[in-house]
Design goal:
alpha+beta, five-stranded antiparallel beta sheet, eight-stranded antiparallel beta sheet
């Protein structure tokens, strides 16, 4: 246990963690005593309180939700399942809304119950009650759930602080927008649940990571919305301080959340935005640095979004393309990024973004933003190659994750993704699951990414579902933009911990039009090593080996690419689709809990080092004719006599095109 405590942490992080544990122990024991001294006063306050402050009025929320008329029809259609007692639980499909205190037996059902107990299903009921001509069925359902939840919460003793935080936010929204229409008993039950949860968050808040951001936001909202409650001033100050510190420490200067996960970037960006908007509404703005980093987070969110409306699944993530609260808000946050980038002409904001901004004008509160740009952009070490002609390539030269707390990190060093026009081609398969141990292990592994595995080991140490050890360190070597395309090169030291230490170098050479993608890998070291190169495509792609060193890829059944590969080592290649034994392979997970079969091309070899491995993806018109290697110089010649020449130097890859 102690080994897992210090693994992956620096000395300063260990000291910080130790002091946090001492402080955590004190809070858990002292705060209940402090609250107990005011129990009678708290009860009287709950009895006489009938309205609370909020970020937006019920009247304004109703007006936004009712434009256009079709929006009302959609809200009432969406709420049908909830009114019948069912809701979609992200990663677990349709589940019965059962707030009873009975706990589930197996880990999957227990986790699904946790997510259900976050009370996200109250949002569609609240919106339906605001817009429906006959709101009574929805108000009755809300009242019943508020009363049921208070009984359940007080019958159980142990609560996860991030779940409590989400409940605070959901319950405050319900009470603020429907408060004057709820019966006093139900309103008081909801208010008591908010207060119970806020005390828990104050006592049990996390040390760092995305949970702490949720907790800071919940405390700030509770403190600002429950103005006359005895603990509100403390919650407001503490919540604001947590949010300010978290955005300083957990958001990189280029705007990416330091956990290097798309999901958590979008979720935390949305939470930082909610805190910022509440502060603007209350005329107590956060710092200018907070505003600056928040705008950068929105810009990054826009770059993470793909042509199909979903997102690239970096780290522990899915494509955020479903209809949960967090996914809808994440897409609205990316929309904000496009507005600030001026990459789209927006005459009207989406309803979701308008609600997030509480009817404020984004350009007025954020300024004019920065102009959208193409070329090579870096976010957290991920290199985004963005051509004017469309498409995108993402190259991972990033760290393992948030230092000292990389619970959501993947062993994906030097992996890459390719989006060809509107099509996802080579992809990160996704996060798969938090409760399926085999799928979770696969999702975090090197073999689940478009990179190279050496001697059967992960590039970064994975010690368990949310544990980690020694992380690979990536170093960006060089990058260059040409009039015809891009070059980016990097290396990582993750395999230097092996008995036969290996350094993996990779260069990506990309010509978007006509399509040509060269991946030049070099494994440097001494002795003999086994290695596998992985290429994971999306579920609507097909692949087949045509000959010893050639494969054909069909994208969405129409576009065709040829993959040709060479090496100075003897190589074997195969395509795997949908295997579970001896291990998971040939799958993608566009949403947590959803597994789709997809082709994975795997090249396997064993050789004394150094080893060079060249892969060329090309439009059939540009078929590579031959590969030559002499005295450290590499050359690939195409059918139109174009040749790419390169050599590895200490500073990176030196490239010419003739």
């Amino acid at each position: 246990m102690f080994d897992n405590f210090y693994k992956g942490k620096s000395l300063s992080q260990l000291v910080d963690a130790l002091f946090w544990h001492i402080n955590f122990f004190s809070r858990r024991h002292l705060l209940p005593i402090l609250r107990g001294l005011n129990r009678s006063g708290e009860g009287r306050w709950i009895e006489r309180t009938r309205t609370i402050e909020y970020i937006i009025s019920a009247k304004d929320a109703r007006r936004i939700l009712c434009r256009p008329k079709e929006a009302v029809d959609q809200i009432l259609a969406d709420v049908g399942k909830v009114l019948d007692g069912w809701t979609e639980v992200p990663g677990f499909g349709l589940r019965k809304i059962d707030l009873s205190p009975e706990t589930a037996k197996n880990p999957a059902d227990l986790y699904a119950q946790r997510l259900l107990w976050r009370l996200d299903f109250l949002r569609p009921l609240t919106r339906a009650a605001l817009v429906a001509e006959d709101p009574e069925p929805y108000l009755t359902a809300v009242e019943n759930y508020l009363n049921d939840w208070q009984q359940t919460r007080r019958s159980l003793k142990t609560w996860d602080s991030v779940d409590e935080s989400i409940r605070v936010l959901n319950l405050l929204e319900v009470l603020a927008l429907l408060g004057d229409r709820l019966d006093p008993k139900s309103f008081s039950a909801g208010l008591a649940s908010v207060i119970d949860a806020a005390w828990t968050v104050q006592a049990q808040r996390a040390r760092t990571g995305n949970h702490l951001i949720y907790e800071g936001l919940a405390l700030y909202y509770a403190g600002r919305c429950l103005l006359n409650y005895v603990q509100s001033p403390r919650w407001k100050r503490l919540g604001k301080r947590i949010l300010e510190k978290a955005i300083r420490l957990q958001v990189l200067e280029d705007g990416l959340n330091a956990e290097l996960s798309t999901n958590y970037h979008l979720i935390t960006g949305t939470n930082f935005l909610k805190g910022w908007i509440l502060s603007v509404k209350c005329a107590e703005n956060f710092s200018l640095d907070y505003q600056r980093k928040l705008a950068k987070m929105a810009h990054t969110a826009a770059q993470l979004q793909c042509a199909d409306g979903g997102f690239s699944a970096l780290g522990d993530s899915d494509r955020m393309a479903a209809q949960s609260r967090e996914e809808i808000e994440g897409r609205a946050f990316a929309e904000l990024g496009r507005i600030l980038d001026r990459s789209e002409n927006h005459t009207e904001l989406s309803d979701e973004l308008t609600l997030l901004l509480a009817n404020l004008n984004p350009n007025e509160i954020f300024g004019e933003g920065t102009a959208y740009s193409v070329g090579i952009q870096s976010f957290g070490g991920y290199q985004f190659l963005i051509p004017k002609s469309g498409g995108k390539l993402i190259f991972d030269a990033a760290p393992f994750g948030l230092p000292g707390a990389s619970h959501h990190g993947h062993a994906d060093s030097l992996s890459f993704e390719v989006f060809w026009g509107q099509c996802r081609f080579l992809v990160d398969p996704g996060g798969f699951s938090y409760v399926d141990a085999a799928a979770r292990s696969f999702a975090r592994s090197t073999r689940a990414h478009n990179t190279i595995e050496v001697d059967g080991e992960n590039s970064s140490e994975i010690l368990g579902s949310f544990k980690f050890g020694r992380a690979a360190k990536c170093r960006l070597l060089n990058q260059q933009v040409f009039d015809w395309g891009y070059l980016v090169a990097a290396e990582h030291d993750g395999y230097t911990r092996l008995p036969n230490p290996v350094v993996h170098r990779r260069a990506i050479i990309w010509q978007p039009e006509p399509f040509l993608l060269l991946i030049a890998d070099q494994l440097r070291g001494q002795g003999n090593s086994r290695f596998k190169a992985f290429f994971h495509a999306d579920s609507d792609c097909e692949a087949e080996i045509e000959s010893g060193n050639t494969a054909i890829w069909r994208l969405k059944g129409t576009d065709t690419l040829q993959q040709t590969f060479w090496s100075n080592a003897k190589m074997e290649s195969k395509v795997i689709v949908g295997e579970r034994e001896p291990e998971l392979q040939g799958w993608v997970s566009p949403a947590f809990g959803t597994y789709l079969t997809a082709p994975a091309l795997i090249e396997t070899g064993e050789s004394s080092l150094p080893v060079d491995l060249i892969n060329c993806f090309s439009d059939p018109v540009l078929l590579p004719l031959k590969y030559e290697f002499e005295a450290g110089n590499h050359r690939v010649t195409l059918a139109d006599d174009t040749a790419f020449n390169w050599s590895w130097k200490q500073e990176g890859l030196i490239l010419s095109r003739t």
